[in-house]
Design goal:
- The complex is a heterodimer of chains A (272) and B (285).
- Chain A is of the alpha/beta class and 272 residues long.
- Chain A has a domain of 120 residues: Rossmann fold, CATH 3.40.50.300.
- Chain A has seven helices and eleven strands.
- In chain A, the strands form two sheets. In chain A, strands 1-11-10-4-9-8-7 form a seven-stranded mixed sheet, with helices on both faces. Chain A has a four-stranded antiparallel sheet with strand order 3-2-5-6, covered by helices on one side.
- In chain A, 46% of the residues are buried.
- Chain B has a domain of 174 residues: Orthogonal Bundle (MetI-like fold), CATH 1.10.3720.
- Helices cover 74% and strands 0% of the residues of chain B.
- Chain B is built from 13 helices and no strands.
- The termini of chain B are far apart.
- The chains are: A alpha/beta (272), B mainly alpha (285).
- Chains A and B meet through strand 7 and helix 2 of A and helix 8 and helix 9 of B.
């Protein structure tokens, strides 16, 4: 059974099954950033826990601060209030224990081949030997089905292939958590579907933990096992959805959940 | 009523090749060759030169192409022209590399601090419009007749162009690329070397090319004023000396050498670098 539960802001979202220590703990986090003329509050008092092997989705309309939250987990923005810890350590700065997959295609370094792009962080941040890094990189590139383009440069690849290389690069680092910032938003609809299916297949394989940001309700339901629904201006937790993976398209339960989430977001838009 | 799918029974049959080679006639093939067309233009220019000089009949004002080539061959054979060219290139290498090195230091300071950025922007805005050759009289007072003065004006001609381009290249590196670098835990100089420089390389290369062009022109112009240490002057001095001896074909031979060296560096050195970097990476601007 999945359950949509409206939440009081500030109260942590409890895991469906109680886990000893969550992998990522976000407590009462307020994020602000400065523009020359103003200080903008992106999120206020957001709390959530991500457990090992969760496919945790941050879902909300634009302006709900979901990408800003992800960047804070990535260590690019410091919370002005609240705490963020990964495996008990406070997040201070960007690090290879939290690998990012971005929406933009220029996340691949154009001066390195596909293999070079995956090897680079392994030899740099993980201090692996060139030989070991190459073996591991090749393994993960094969996993995303790109063994044929191992020595091609990024500009020769299609958008979907570039995103798969970025995923392979993230996974090869075997990070504590993979942070994905609308990774399929710039792809055409058919490629997006293939990439979503592939991400799920990869997850079945290795059960990595992923924090996924999207503004598509359908994508959130397809990818996630848990969804955190955020309302905009400033971003606050609106609801948490657990056991999303028990829904399926065949019996219409996925469609029903999509409608429920849509209504929640839509009502919010009318009120706000 | 429910949706129906009707499969096309012909879909599995071969639809023929998607891409077929296009045949070109021999003339069309030759004419579409850029190198051929440019060679034709050069040949035409040579013919015009030769016929005008013959018509004019005044070797002191305008020697024929054949006389110029004879002068060129004899100066090369006597070893004068090669040794003068070599002298110029040595000084150029010293000045150019010092200029690039200083530009690197200045830009690295500039990207790390806001005050550094202001410093770089103010300095380039101030000195970039100043032709390096205009500093030569001053340089001669400060450093005397010698390599020092030449290197000083060369540095001035290279530094600002390279620093300006490198800096704007660094600034145009996308936010995503920067975040990727931080994600890899690259910081400080390693971040500059492994992320910023390759990411900004197209712009940096443009700066290096502009710097080279400035330096080569400046050096030849500066050498026209004096020869470095007892007769061991460079190419510019060779041109000046030949003019003083009214050896006009040699003046032309010297000028041709200046052009040829410029072309070689431009089309061999920089084109090769481009082919192995920005063309291969698909980031040509």
């Amino acid at each position: 059974m999945n359950a949509v539960s409206p939440i009081d802001a500030g109260r942590p979202v409890q895991a469906a099954s109680p886990a000893p220590e969550p992998l990522l703990r976000t407590q009462n986090v307020t994020l602000r950033y400065e523009t020359p003329g103003a200080v903008i509050t992106a999120t206020r008092g957001v709390s959530f826990d991500v457990n090992q092997s969760d496919r945790f989705v941050l879902l909300g309309p634009s302006g709900c601060g979901k990408s800003t939250l992800l960047k804070a987990v990535g260590g690019y923005i410091k919370p002005s209030e609240g705490t963020m810890t990964i495996k008990g350590r406070t997040i201070q700065r960007p690090g290879a224990d939290r690998m990012m997959v971005f929406q933009e295609f220029d996340q691949l370094l154009p001066w390195k081949t596909v293999l070079g792009n995956v090897v680079f962080p392994l030899t740099n941040a993980r201090k692996m030997s060139a030989k070991d890094a190459e073996a591991r990189a090749t393994h993960y590139i094969e996993k995303v089905g790109l063994a044929d383009v191992l020595n091609s440069y990024p500009h020769m690849l299609s958008g979907g292939m570039k995103q798969r290389v970025a995923i392979a690069r993230g996974m090869a680092m075997e990070p504590d958590i993979l942070l994905m910032d609308e990774p399929f938003a710039a792809l055409d609809a058919l490629t997006r579907r293939t990439c979503q299916d592939e991400l799920l297949r990869l997850w079945e394989d290795t059960r990595f933990t992923v924090l996924f940001v999207t503004h598509s309700i359908a994508e959130a339901i397809k990818i996630g096992n848990r969804i955190l629904l955020l309302s905009p201006h400033p971003g606050r937790v609106k609801a948490a959805v657990s056991d999303v993976d028990t829904t399926n398209i065949a019996d219409g339960s996925a469609g029903k959940l999509e409608q429920q989430i849509h209504d929640l977001l839509f009502n919010d838009a009318v009120e706000g | 009523m429910s949706a129906m799918i009707h499969l096309n029974p012909d879909a599995a049959l071969s639809a023929g090749p998607e891409i077929e080679p296009r045949r070109m006639g021999t003339l069309e093939a030759i004419w579409s060759n850029t190198a051929f067309r440019k060679t034709m233009i050069l040949v035409l220019l040579a013919v015009i030169w030769e016929s005008y000089a013959r018509y004019l009949g005044n070797p002191l004002l305008f020697p024929t192409l054949t006389d110029t080539i004879k002068a060129l061959v004899s100066s090369i054979a006597s070893g004068v022209l090669p040794s003068r060219t070599w002298a110029s290139l040595k000084i150029l290498a010293i000045g150019y590399s010092s200029g690039v090195l200083l530009a690197a230091v200045l830009t690295i300071v500039a990207i790390n601090t806001r005050l550094g950025t202001d410093l770089l922007e103010t300095l380039t805005a101030t000195f970039n419009p100043l032709p390096a050759i205009a500093l030569l009289p001053l340089a001669l007072i400060w450093f005397g007749l010698g390599i020092g003065s030449l290197v000083f004006v060369l540095i001035h001609s290279v530094l600002w162009a390279v620093a300006l381009n490198t800096h704007s290249g660094f600034r145009s590196v996308s936010q995503t690329t920067r975040m990727v670098g931080w994600n890899y835990e690259l910081r400080g100089l390693r971040y500059v070397a492994k992320i910023l420089i390759p990411a900004a390389f197209p712009t940096i290369l443009t700066g290096l090319k502009i710097g080279w062009a400035f330096a080569w022109r400046t050096l030849i112009a500066a050498e026209l004023v004096f020869g470095v240490s007892s007769g061991q002057g460079g190419l510019g001095w060779f041109i000046f000396e030949s003019r003083n001896m009214l050896n006009i074909p040699s003046v032309f031979a010297g000028l041709l050498t200046v052009i040829v060296v410029g072309l070689i560096v431009e089309s061999l050195v920089f084109k090769t670098i481009e082919r192995h970097t920005i063309q291969k990476w698909g980031v040509q601007s």
